[in-house]
Amino acid sequence: MARILVINPNSTQAVTDGMDRALEPLRFSGGPEIACVTLADGPPGIETQAHVNAVVAPICRQVAERDDADAFVIACFSDPGLHAARETTTKPVYGIAEAAMAVSLTRGERFGILSILDGSIPRHARAVRAAGLSERFAGDVAIGIGVTGLVEGAEGPGESEVMDRLVAAGTRLRDHHRADVLILGCAGMASYRTPLSKSLGVAVIDPTLAAVTLALGL
Amino acid sequence: MARILVINPNSTQAVTDGMDRALEPLRFSGGPEIACVTLADGPPGIETQAHVNAVVAPICRQVAERDDADAFVIACFSDPGLHAARETTTKPVYGIAEAAMAVSLTRGERFGILSILDGSIPRHARAVRAAGLSERFAGDVAIGIGVTGLVEGAEGPGESEVMDRLVAAGTRLRDHHRADVLILGCAGMASYRTPLSKSLGVAVIDPTLAAVTLALGL
Amino acid sequence: MARILVINPNSTQAVTDGMDRALEPLRFSGGPEIACVTLADGPPGIETQAHVNAVVAPICRQVAERDDADAFVIACFSDPGLHAARETTTKPVYGIAEAAMAVSLTRGERFGILSILDGSIPRHARAVRAAGLSERFAGDVAIGIGVTGLVEGAEGPGESEVMDRLVAAGTRLRDHHRADVLILGCAGMASYRTPLSKSLGVAVIDPTLAAVTLALGL
Amino acid sequence: MARILVINPNSTQAVTDGMDRALEPLRFSGGPEIACVTLADGPPGIETQAHVNAVVAPICRQVAERDDADAFVIACFSDPGLHAARETTTKPVYGIAEAAMAVSLTRGERFGILSILDGSIPRHARAVRAAGLSERFAGDVAIGIGVTGLVEGAEGPGESEVMDRLVAAGTRLRDHHRADVLILGCAGMASYRTPLSKSLGVAVIDPTLAAVTLALGL
Amino acid sequence: MARILVINPNSTQAVTDGMDRALEPLRFSGGPEIACVTLADGPPGIETQAHVNAVVAPICRQVAERDDADAFVIACFSDPGLHAARETTTKPVYGIAEAAMAVSLTRGERFGILSILDGSIPRHARAVRAAGLSERFAGDVAIGIGVTGLVEGAEGPGESEVMDRLVAAGTRLRDHHRADVLILGCAGMASYRTPLSKSLGVAVIDPTLAAVTLALGL
Amino acid sequence: MARILVINPNSTQAVTDGMDRALEPLRFSGGPEIACVTLADGPPGIETQAHVNAVVAPICRQVAERDDADAFVIACFSDPGLHAARETTTKPVYGIAEAAMAVSLTRGERFGILSILDGSIPRHARAVRAAGLSERFAGDVAIGIGVTGLVEGAEGPGESEVMDRLVAAGTRLRDHHRADVLILGCAGMASYRTPLSKSLGVAVIDPTLAAVTLALGL
Questions:
Q1: Chain F contact for E107 (CB, 8 A cutoff)
Q2: CATH class of F3-95+209-216
Q3: pTM given for the model
Q4: ipTM
């Protein structure tokens, strides 16, 4: 039976647990196994370009060594090491930002990104341009909460505050930037997808779900 | 249990049967049902803009009336009635050309399209521009065989000739146009996907498979 | 003597009458005849993608059967059946949205579109991208009045209210979106062109006039 | 009665005479007068950027002083002084390259340019980019004959040789660059339009005709 | 020793003096001489397209006649005669707008332009498109002061008012248009570069400095 | 006195020595010091995405620790760690690929890249798109020689063979892809710049020289 290995490149197990739960609907009894692993030597959250680069080598090691996996998903919205990993293996490797942008093209005219921090926005701008998708990009709004602050039970702002800020940022993307499909710009936001979509009346893409879905097609 | 309805808008049952077989790997015991229907009042093959427009109303009727379906796939590479169908229902509707282009972004830098006939090329050019994907588009080469000619057992050129022409066109896309991922530009080419990918050493996307995969993610 | 056939694909005769009047300045004694016809089996107004598709076949029939015409203008801003009609005949066929965008490039740096309803905006966005004109597109603002509401004497908001809303939307396009040429996004707005242009101090393009002008050049 | 003033900015009267003849079909008994003037102090042909700039001031003087004209056409494919002239008057001013590119959008998917000399190609490349039309641009091929060589009776290569080279260049644009509409890249090529279109089976745009047609719409 | 000739195409000596002072940091004892000249027959400030075109011929004369120069910089943000000058000589010729946009790509994600007058904005829009840089362009805001008003001691608004308006326009570009690098859109603003950069916390490019820097690399 | 630190991220001292010699013309007696360092823990040549990522952390350490430097140049054509380094310091950091593309915009209409190996081409394609420069990009041709093979005295193909291949690839870029300015796609090709430019008659950009030139402007 095929196995899709989802690599959370930050070391926060609660983030891995969250995505593991979010992927449950894609686990079919006859379908591929979907396994999530935490990169022990990653930073608690990937919030800077230096964090991005630091996890590339350990990600590539995983990709090279895990003979039991048939496809890989790098579950961080900065797609760290995506192209390095693709050079490491002939198996398919998905980055969740790239996958989310691709999937969003089939759910609306213009995608908006819900970022965690303002500092992510220029990084995403480069990613959108590198993907050649500027014509479909509506805008990017940050909610001002770091990766670890998103985790349930963390000493962060709490779920209700996270939701409020996502609704505010999503409203701005929908009404001011005219986005009609939103992308959660972090692997740790999966639990907010359904309520946010209901609240705003537009499709919301969880990037990890998007990437694992694409991997199912192999 | 969820049901994905795949609508073949041409009336050639053999084309429907071919895509039905090709979708087998996406049928998981615990997963959504994937049902393929033939549009009885469609033309034998959709090869002109007039054919495209003629099937819009019957497609929209299917979408409106089939309460038992949770998502729809319009299985013709011209994406006939895609936007009309989306206005007809709040359920997700996928067009296979749009889906194939989206999925191709995660499998290579530049996608090439293998068309059936020369007359399809301007139509595809408009679709690529409308999708805002010109920066990722390598080129489009036709094999000179119509939809019904692709069907096994038809009075067409035969499987071996179809394969030869696909290899020749794919080689041109790979070497001259520098495509590193190819899209089969017709719903009736699914059986050639794996041998073509092996022969050319690049990923090959079957558009119906791409669209149904995306539908699984819901 | 040459004849240009202008097809109004909605069944509202008052819309046809309005465009007929608006085309008067292009009727030269030695020039081509400009004839306007109403598509009897069209909907009262073309306001959805389904309406667009419904009129394609009757438009193509007109184009195929009217041997007495030398060029065709499809007078609906969604350009229904434009490419299907072009496959039907070797005579020139013009779509008024395509023509208006083309002509606008010679009258300003950035064109804005005055739409009737919010629902038209995504359809126009696809049309702008499909035309490859995103770099010249400033924005799109709707006035919130349907096709039939534009017609004089209709039970709509009345001419003065239509004009007020056009001025408000045009001001937003000019000042916020920095459009310096405006396109009337419906065949039924022709009578507002001159007063609107005077009020806003920018060129205003009536799309039917634009298309018939282009047809004169043949 | 309205008057359209067509300014040939080179001093070669035979070029003016040629465009005058080519515009005959747009002279309708009840329509605007179409008058062609030669810029006495222009160079014999506009073949360099320096030529382009040299004629700007005299063109602007014509535009400022000719109170009897209602619209102006600058009949040189480099559109010399187009934006300067537009600042000089509130009347419409058309450049023939800009007009030809605009009109070509309604006659095919991808336009190709038939240039006189290789040195024109980078200038046209800038013009296409400045117009924001790169997505519709197929390519540019030069025939290697200067402006004065195009004129009938000149000591140039002769009509038959000009035609042969236009057919060869047009064939390359159609088959290699996949252009499906061609633009004559010089005001002095008008007489070749119809035979070239027949020979190649694609629409051919004469830029002066395109610009005067647009002026008729006012 | 090499010599870079900086040509101020307006006749205002105070503008030349200002750029001369601003270039002081690039004068190295062992490096190229940097000489600034005023175009005696230029207008006091280049504020219209007609001004732009009027200085082309005298600029080209300078470029052709100054055998003692090894590289040329045309120090006006409209890059008048840039391409004509390049046809005149095989030596490198830099336009300060083109140079500033190029250099800005290495200092931020999105460049904004600080213009002198509203009338410059469409001219800049064409320049950005002609340069193929629309994807990196954030916006353009004018301060409402002409060239001669920028000069110290002039009967203009005074340095403090100029600075206030630059800060206001720059703030708008940074916060509303999301520019992270700003370009001074006039050769006469050099003295404001450092204080403006400090005030706004983003890199600010003086275009003349940018062009002379590039010339040093030869 | 200011100091520009040029970091060669591969461990091949001969590459550092070559760029050191090539930068000699930019060392002015009164100008900034230009110091070149070799990254001891880098790979011999940076030829894969994994190599790129491996040197990011050591580059960032250099940038963080070298208090004596006022600007940094990362002298590898993959711009490894460019954005990470920019987050590490407020001093300017230049990547040589980004700098070379920027500078090329001022020397020609369309830039071509001379790559070392075929495997670099998709990486460059992403870089061109991420830079938003697709409209100015002509093409990319590899010479089939790795970094260490370029070094004089190495056990590579020898200088004369390298030159022959550069001429062949450059000719293809100039004549087939219509590039009119070429970029050396590796920091180790500097010594070929002048002879190649003479041989081909187009400007050739050495990327390290381009980046250091830009750094001089600070």
A1: yes
A2: alpha beta
A3: 0.93
A4: 0.94
